[in-house]
Amino acid sequence: MESLAIEIAKIMSPEALSIQNRWGENALRLAIKGDMESLAREINKMTQ
User: Cα angle vertex 46, ends 21, 1, to 5°?
Assistant: First the structure.
């Protein structure tokens, strides 16, 4: 079900595709779930 939500988000939202392209699939999952704390940690790891 989660992967379906990700696919729908990619189709419906250019921002979702942008998040995936820039930060990866895991970051997109966290953004869709609304887990901003984990998303911030994920992005922080990638920018160091």
Answer: 50
Give pLDDT tens digits for 26-37: 888 888 888 889
C-alpha Rg value of the chain to the nearest Å: 10
Written as six digits, the tokens of 14 are 């250019």
The sign one gets for the Cα dihedral 7, 8, 11, 15 is negative
Token pair of 10 as six digits: 């990619």
Using CA atoms, how far apart are residues 4 and 20, in angstroms rounded to an integer?
Answer: 15
pTM: 0.62
Tell me the residue range of the domain where 42 lies.
2-47
Domain count of the chain?
Answer: 1
